Amino acid sequence: MTTTTSTTPGLTGVTASEAQPDVADGTRASRAVRRRRRKPRILANTLAVVFCLVWVFPIYWMVNTAFKPADEVTTLTPIWLPLRPTLENFTRALTQAGFLVYLRNSAIVVLAAVLLSIVVGFLASAALSRFRFRGRRGILVAILFVQMIPSGALLIPLFLSFQTLGLLNSYIGLILAYVASVLPFSIWVMRGFFVAVPAEIEEAAKVDGAGTVRILWSVLFPLVLPGVIATSVFAFIAAWNDYLTAYVMLKDQGMYTLPVWLAGFSTNKGTDFGGLMAASVLFSIPVVVFFLIVQRRLVSGMTAGAVKG
What is the DSSP string of 201-213? Predict the structure, then answer.
């Protein structure tokens, strides 16, 4: 009687009955490793979902309240969806006195502040990252120190300085105040992008005969474009949402911005919560539109910043 011994590939001289327990043990071990790796991932995803829900809830409640009639807004029992949706709150917000004027004021001031902060921040960060001069470290420390100071703490000195210079109650003074508040952050962020650019790229451009201005605009600017976009988004949001600086620096009500207009929904007689939430939705739309416009540029800038070997 002849006994046939079968072998498995890679296991020479080992019978199938002897190899099966080893394969099964390996499969169970790999499954155990996958389960151990899956648990931290599930925990991280759960925490991320919870964080997103907590972050999104105020936005949801703002939009939800904007479409509610007055009796549903003031009820003690939360109403998660409007039972009788209405556009009355939006109509009341749009017909509020001075809405279009304040919208124009905000657009002028914010766009000018964003443009000026980008230009000054780009040139300052280029100088601090690509040139070596005495006092450079001190300037960097001063920028970091100013960035850590709350903007409210600088409001009184800024007010007194602008009063001396005659810049109160003017668009120029408000624009300069916004630029001063966002410029330290802009310089610090864009400097990090400049430092990440290899010096060999500039040297190659100089060999080709490019001057300093040409290198800044045609070589470095596309590479640091993600930093420029990031700082422009921060500058836009900071200037668009500011209430205190505009209220203190401006005396003429015809020059007020939209955040000051939003405060008009709260009076001594009470707060119009429905109108306030509808106005807040309208107030948030330009920020969302601005981000949607620049996000494609942000991605293309990251692609342009890739250095091919």
Answer: HHHHHHHTT--HH
